[in-house]
Amino acid sequence: MDNNLSRRNFLSLMGGGIAAMMLPGSTGWGNTAKKPNFILIFADDLGYGDISGFGLKKSPFETPNLERMAAEGAKLTSYYVPTPYCAPSRATILTGRYPFRNGVVFNPAPDGGINSVGLRDSEITIAEALKEAGYASICIGKWHLGHTSKFLPRRQGFDEYYGILYSNDMRPVQLVENEKVVEYPVIQATLTKRYTQRALDFIECSFSRNCPFFLYLPHAMPHKPLAASEDFYTPDTPDDLYADVTRGRASPVGQFLANHKKWGPDDNPFFFFTQDSGPC
Known about the structure:
- By secondary structure, the chain is an alpha/beta fold.
- The protein has a single domain (39-46, 76-275), classed as Alkaline Phosphatase, subunit A.
- Helices cover 30% and strands 12% of the residues.
- It contains eight helices and seven strands.
- The chain has helices spanning 7-22, 64-72, 86-95, 99-102, 126-131, 191-208, 241-250, 252-263; strands spanning 38-43, 136-140, 160-163, 175-177, 180-183, 213-218, 270-275.
- The protein has a seven-stranded mixed sheet with strand order 5-4-3-2-6-1-7.
- Helix 6 (191-208) runs parallel beside helix 8.
- The protein starts with 6 loop residues before the first helix and ends in a 5-residue tail after the last strand.
């Protein structure tokens, strides 16, 4: 596979594959008997050049699991988010439509009184499209497509939600499960680890039910305020907290890659890692 696959060719391949899967009577991806699973990890404020394989070679930002993904898969180097900040980028990646079409042109913010902005019911998300094909779906992490009841993730096709409904520097920072607040205040240093475990549990459950799945994992980090887990925090070098968070943010990819072997050789996942806007 060409590691520098162009955005146009990539979208063409994906479009053709999805069309084949959706044909009446189709039982899977193309001529296979099993529908593929989709894992989409979306980083918040991660610099393009801050992970190994895309920029810095020898640095505190070394991310071997992401480098492995790039080496074994396709490295997309010529695409951009439509608006370099949180909510519009998320609306676009979930709908495939520009912000001026999907209606999310700036960020909702509870502490700023911006409560009426969110993804409209009329928009069709990836989760909604895949639901019609029999998929289970979950959103784990930062939603930021509306924090009032009419905009919540389960109104947009997701079966489950677990995370913070907006940026982790907005108040109040509440951990929400489906529509219920389950933690306040939130211990942010543990979020990445908890998100990863919740994702692994969802995948295991989907396999046990023999159900194809879509996992959307928009992590909070490395958006400010930075909070590194104990596994990656380096107290002897306190000035490199961004590096600590970046390494911790990329580490769960290794767990997904390791578990893929356990899930079985006939599983055919599409595994994406991308980011919204670059470092603040």
